[in-house]
Amino acid sequence: MSSGTFISFEGIDGAGKSTHIARVAELFRQAGRAVVLTREPGGTSLSEKLRELVLHEPMDALTEALVMFAARREHLVQIIEPALARSDVVLCDRFTDATFAYQGGGRGFNWQVLGQLERMVQGLPDGSLRQPDLTVWFDLDPLIAAERLASARVPDKFESQPADFFAAVRAGYARRQAEMPSRFARIDAAQSIDAVSAEVSRVVSDWLQGVAA
Ligand code: TMP
Fold first, then answer.
1. Distance of alpha carbon 134 from alpha carbon 75, whole angstroms
2. Contact (Cβ atoms closer than 8 angstroms) between residue 24 and residue 92
3. Residue 15: what are its φ and ψ, rounded to 5°?
4. For ligand 1, which residues put their CB under 6 angstroms from it?
5. Residue 136's Cα: distance from chain center in Å?
6. Nearest 5°: phi and psi at 136?
7. Could you give the 3-state DSSP secondary structure of residue 185?
8. If you take atom 3 of ligand 1, which residue's CA is the nearest one?
9. Which residue out of 67, 113, 158, 169 has the highest number of ligand 1 atoms within 8 Å of its CB and is therefore the one to mutate?
10. Average pLDDT along the chain
11. Sheet holding 5-11, edge to edge
12. ∠171-64-123 over CA atoms, to 5°?
């Protein structure tokens, strides 16, 4: 059994989640916890190589889903499970909900097949599934996200998708939240950075108090 804390951060490209993850890390460090900051796809040397491929090479939808889960498996085995076993806090910039949202919602890939892959990759010896304890979802209108991205770096394969792709990704996140409401906290990412930051801190603190109670 692990006694660590596993929090994932999700949202469409341009929702601005990365800015806030570092602040959450600081909250935990101030509370004396060891923090592992990581991301998907990525987090290990092999998974980062898979990230390069999947973000830049065109590929079939099943191949894309398999690469995401292959990268995740490696990341879980090498980084996430050992950190949780040490009772660390794992803050992960995207996890499995992104596959349901992007490959399932955005690409229209079969939701049930993604569920089978999820069980295969995230299954634990006791038969349960490894899932984040808390998922902070930065929810944003795709049109606002597109405006924010317009001034950003050269877009990758996903970032260059049209707004209707991101509307479908957003619907994918909403579907995941509806399926697993207890671990999701939705944040309105259209607010100012300071307002979002305050809400994220409040959500994480409230959640920690709930766990401790
Ligand atoms: P990032 O830019 O937030 O690091 O995410 C990388 C991109 O990969 C982002 O556009 C979302 C996409 N992605 C998927 O399509 N499926 C997944 O399972 C994950 C983890 C990310």
1. 18
2. no
3. -75, -15
4. 13, 39-41, 55, 68, 93-94, 98-99, 102-103, 158-159
5. 8
6. -95, 115
7. strand
8. 13
9. 158
10. 95
11. 35-39, 89-93, 5-11, 134-139, 184-188
12. 80
**Where in the chain are the domains?**
5-212
**Integer Cα distance of 59 and 51 in angstroms:** 13
Q: In terms of Cα–Cα distance, which of 98, 103, 124 is closest to 43?
A: 98
CA distances to 7, 57, 132, 185, 196 from 202, rounded to whole Å, are 14, 39, 18, 11, 10
Q: Which amino acid is at 167?
A: A
Looking at residue 88, the DSSP 8-state letter turns out to be P
The whole-number pLDDT of residue 110 equals 96
For the beta carbon of residue 32, count every other beta carbon within 10 angstroms.
6
* Whether this model's pTM surpasses 0.85: yes
Angle at 50 between CA 44 and CA 51, to 5 degrees: 85
Dist. CA 8 → ligand 1 center (Å): 13
Interval 72-85 mean pLDDT: 98
Phi and psi torsions of 184, nearest 5°: -95, 135
List 109's β-bridge partners, or say none.
none
How large is the average pLDDT for residues 102-119? 97
CA–CA distance, 36 with 137 (Å, rounded to integer): 19
What is the fold of 5-212? Rossmann fold (3.40.50)
Compute the distance from residue 40 Cα to the ligand 1 centre, in Å: 7
